[in-house]
Amino acid sequence: MTAAPAANGRIEIDRRMFNPYSKDFIRQPRETWQRLVKEFPVAYHKDLQMWMVNSHEYCAEMLKNNIFTPNYRVWEHAPPAKAEEDKNDYDRVFDHSLFTVSTRDHLKLRKLTMPAFSRPVMGKIDGKIRDLVMECFDSIPADAEEFDVYSTIAEKLPARSIARMVGVPTEMEEFFHEFAVNVVKSTRINLPAKQREDAINGTLPGLKFFLDEIAKRRAAESPGTDFLGSLVSARDGSDQLDDYDIVSIILALITAGSDTATDLHTYVIHGLLSNPEQYQLLREQPELMENAIIELLRWGSFGKFPFFRFASEDQDFHGQQIRKGQAVMINLPSAWHDPAKYPDWDKLDIRRNLEGNLVFGAGAHFCIGTYLVRVQGGLMLTEFMKRFPHAELANGDGEIDYDYNHHNARRITRLKVKTNRQAQRKAA
Fold this sequence. Notes:
The protein is an alpha+beta fold and 428 residues long. It contains 18 helices and 15 strands. The strands form five sheets. It has a six-stranded mixed β-sheet, covered by helices on one side. Strands 5-15-12 form a three-stranded antiparallel β-sheet.
């Protein structure tokens, strides 16, 4: 299919060109990404009713352009604004979100949250997550010749890691997991309005838990030195975070580091075991870990709908007239496979120079969960390599399967790994 400009000069495509719900696309997306990058760097998707930006250059430009905001209340199909007396806790937290506040308040929030991301606080989180990683691997029987990465690691680790980070008691981790799922769904404009509304209502018990916990911290002699305590005690002159500011940071972390990290674990293992020479290289040079995680995320590219932006005013974007209120999908998976940025885009190379990559976004809204995602991924891969140095994908492809109905990701729901432990023991 080659799209012709519409009568108004708009370049248009439809689901014949890009259908994120297609099983063929979910299994084999790279050909679609290449066509989007080369033929439609920016185009209007008639079926999705939003713009798509697909090239690396254009994605980077839009992420740094403040006219295109992550505030979905600017969206032409956003629900009507509520009167103050009609707002619930979700509405009030959203009023304080990094995605909705003014540029000035956004900078203030970022500055005040810095102590919570300091080395001492992050060191404590590292220790808590390390225990979770060990628990996941210890659950694999010592004589297991195969195990499923999704059910053993990916499904269990991310939400529990965030829960530990923000001070949720162990006995409430299931409660927190449901809360996290609803938080992520509440932000997805590609879902029907009724599903988003149900998800918003589903966040309310969790929001009450955190607001109550913050109140306890404020009433205590000391709010504590953990992540939540650091947010409560943060000061910059007369500025400090109020309760809804703090909960908005927690929601931003959940959005960035919980749902996304589920896919990180399956895709990085799939990527390395699909490229055994790269797995061997990382085992020999573990100092490449941070670069490897970024490259594995680039190469795997698990998102269907990575980022949305909304035009806060009419804008001519490379010859296409984007109207105020229209939604734009910043199609990062296609950008990460753009030959103009990565000539050997289809090659996994953990030594790659990744300067200027967009894996964690760019601009003012650079991913707040970057540290947590990297720590989780690094700890998990280090332990995986230690325990399974000769691992392979079971039956050559890991018997891979996907959740074809997932709202946001090409989620892998089965990835079987052959441990080769018996061969390892015989060799020893």
